[in-house]
From TrEMBL:
The keyword tRNA processing does not apply. It comes from Streptomyces litchfieldiae. The active site is at residue 181. It holds the Pfam family Peptidase_M15. This is D-alanyl-D-alanine dipeptidase.
Length: 207
């Protein structure tokens, strides 16, 4: 792992995370290539901006739950291969109920060159500090549907308010949002805007 990349839980002790692509709980239905440990990795710039976001969220009574950060290019390549395989229906209802697999790329939900692979993009949500419960957002991580877009119709007022709250926190902390996914944010001044890394996520930092 490059020296400028760190485990976010070590940089930000106490942060909550659930590395979806290291588990069976993702749109492919199995652990993804390159995710060999259930950890979230990112650049130091990402961590610094996230720390600012965590402090602002805490002032509003919320914490951050991270789903993904740095994503190896081999993982993105595996998404491409998966999209060309016959549909088995295992994850369609939950993650892409109204589209076919290839449309994930056509509609901008998955990219052949992902911002995650540059190391300064994060997928995340809010939770209530008092109860630990996730904030209602009107859809889960990687729901590839128009309801996941910023400003989407069909969600409750409370869910829309929580999305706006997350967006405000993140943009105030130096992130830019992504129109198609309420959970997806990138550091505005990312350190590697043109570099797509491919080292795997493991328990050991190789340096």
């Amino acid at each position: 792992m490059r020296n400028d990349f760190v485990f976010i839980d070590e940089y930000m002790p106490g942060v909550r995370w659930d590395a979806k692509y290291a588990t069976w709980d993702n749109f492919t239905g199995k652990p993804v290539d390159g995710y060999l440990a259930n950890r979230i990795v990112g650049t130091r710039a990402l961590c610094a901006a996230l720390q600012t976001a965590r402090e602002e969220a805490a002032a509003r009574g919320f914490g951050l739950l991270l789903w993904d950060g740095y994503r190896p290019q081999r993982a993105v390549d595996s998404f491409l291969r998966w999209s060309k395989q016959p549909e088995d229906g295992r994850t369609k209802h939950r993650h892409y109920p109204k589209i076919d697999r290839p449309e994930m790329f056509e509609n901008g939900y998955v990219a052949a060159k992902s911002g995650h692979t540059r190391g300064s993009t994060v997928d995340l949500t809010l939770y209530h500090l008092e109860s630990g419960d996730l904030a209602a957002m009107g859809g889960d991580h990687d729901l590839m549907d128009s309801v996941s877009h910023h400003g989407a119709e069909g969600i409750s007022r409370a869910e829309a308010d929580n999305r706006r709250r997350l967006r405000s926190i993140m943009e105030n902390s130096g992130f830019s949002s992504y129109a198609c996914e309420w959970w997806h944010y990138t550091v505005k001044d990312e350190p590697y805007p043109d570099t797509y890394f491919d080292f795997p996520i493991t328990q050991v930092i190789l340096g």
